[in-house]
Design brief:
Blueprint (H helix, E strand, L loop, with lengths): L1 H24 L2 H10 L8 H19 L4 H24 L2 H29 L2 H21 L2 H10 L7 H20 L3 H25 L5 E2 L13 E2 H28 L1
Antiparallel strand pairs: 1-2
């Protein structure tokens, strides 16, 4: 039975590696845009620094456990690619954003990770050390999975899915399923538990996308033929209001014409 469980854990671990590999590469279009424009524009460095910190935590945890090779492989790649993202961001970021990113790196990657290693190495031993690091990883992963609530709130508030990265949400949901079963089959709650929340939030985002994608108002584009310049895009409701206003103006003109006729 243990052999079958180990076999399926390996299968889900490999699938989790493949999906997570795609997720780690998903920011490439963003950084290609940054490279082309030679500017980070309005992009933030927080997601990439946090992802780097998360990968480092999971690698440390994996080294304290057994049969976690697949956890090491994907997080090693994640740490490598996130380091490149952060380096590119620092190179093209304006002075203020660069300073903020450096402070964030010192706080998390240097200070936070360094403190975790020192405390767990000197204050805890053996199995207890692995459990403490595992709980830290679990809590941090829960915080990471809660982050999409900001996007969910924005979608509900604006009733628009324009800024919801649906493909990324789908891949993250599938990834959560793979890593949940990987942790479950290894009987490791620290791996399995956070991915339950990740799956729930992933499904929630996809449901909201399905609901609000159909409710988005169609945009009607208009142009001025004289100089070929585009005017602001109008919704159907705005066009109806303009038509009503036009009718009102016409009605006023007719009434004024009638009064002038009576006076004559």
């Amino acid at each position: 039975m243990a052999g079958i469980s180990g076999h399926w854990a390996f299968v889900f671990g490999v699938l989790g590696n493949i999906i997570s590999f795609i997720v780690f590469l998903s920011p490439l279009p963003t950084f290609y845009k940054i490279y082309k424009k030679k500017s980070t524009e309005g992009y933030q460095s927080i997601p990439y620094v946090i992802a780097l910190f998360s990968c480092m935590l999971w690698i440390y945890y994996a080294f304290l456990k057994t049969n976690t090779t697949l956890l090491i492989t994907i997080n090693s790649f994640g740490m490598f690619i996130e380091t490149i993202y952060v380096a590119v961001y620092l190179y093209y970021a304006p002075k203020t954003a660069r300073a903020h990113t450096v402070k964030l790196l010192l706080l998390t990657v240097v200070g936070g990770f360094g403190a975790i290693i020192l405390v767990t190495q000197f204050l805890f031993k053996g199995v207890v050390r692995g459990q403490i690091v595992g709980w830290i990883c679990l809590i941090f992963s829960l915080c990471v999975f809660v982050a999409p609530l900001a996007i969910v709130r924005q979608v509900i508030k604006t009733k628009s899915v324009e800024y919801m990265p649906i493909l990324l949400s789908i891949f993250l949901t599938i990834s959560a399923v793979m890593w949940f079963f990987y942790g479950l089959l290894l009987k490791d709650i620290n791996i399995a538990a956070p991915n339950i929340l990740g799956f729930i939030f992933g499904i929630l985002q996809m449901v909201l996308y399905a609901i609000y994608r159909k409710k988005e108002k169609p945009i009607v584009k208009a142009t001025i033929l004289d100089d070929n310049k585009k005017i602001p895009e109008l919704t159907e409701e705005q066009i109806v209001d303009i038509v009503k206003l036009g009718k009102l103006v016409c009605s006023c003109k007719i009434q004024m014409a009638n009064l002038q006729t009576l006076e004559a």
